[in-house]
Amino acid sequence: MTTKQNLDLLQSYAGLSGGKLINLDDQDNLVKIINDLTNKSNKFIVDNSEIKLWSKEVVLIILILLFAIEWFLRKKAGLQ
Predict the structure, then answer these.
(1) How far apart are CA 42 and CA 33, in angstroms?
(2) Which residue, 4, 22, 56, 62, has fewest beta-carbon neighbours within 10 Å?
(3) How do residues 7-22 score in pLDDT, each as one tens digit?
(4) Rg of the Cα trace of the chain?
């Protein structure tokens, strides 16, 4: 078993994943490389809209009625 660093394999992994192989000699430039990558990345705006289900009494009543009807039909059919 060999424990030597396989630069060709690492370079191919980096190329396949869209990454970049950084040698120990380039570690001083690592912060610059990371900043360049983050500045090029796409930024998304996420807009969440929530519907408060239990604050609407009509929805709650409809759900309870549906469950009651389903329970009644199962009891009548003997399905438990």
Answers:
(1) 16
(2) 4
(3) 899 999 999 998 888 8
(4) 29
**Of how many residues is the chain composed?**
80
SS3 content of the chain, % helix, strand, coil (to 5): 65, 0, 35
What is the rounded CA–CA span in Å between residue 73 and residue 15? 60
CA separation, residue 48 to residues 22, 38, 45 (Å): 38, 24, 10
d(CA 9, CA 36): 25
Q: Answer for the pair 21, 14: CB distance below 8 angstroms, yes or no.
A: yes
pTM of the full predicted structure? 0.39
What token pair was written down for 70? Answer: 């389903």
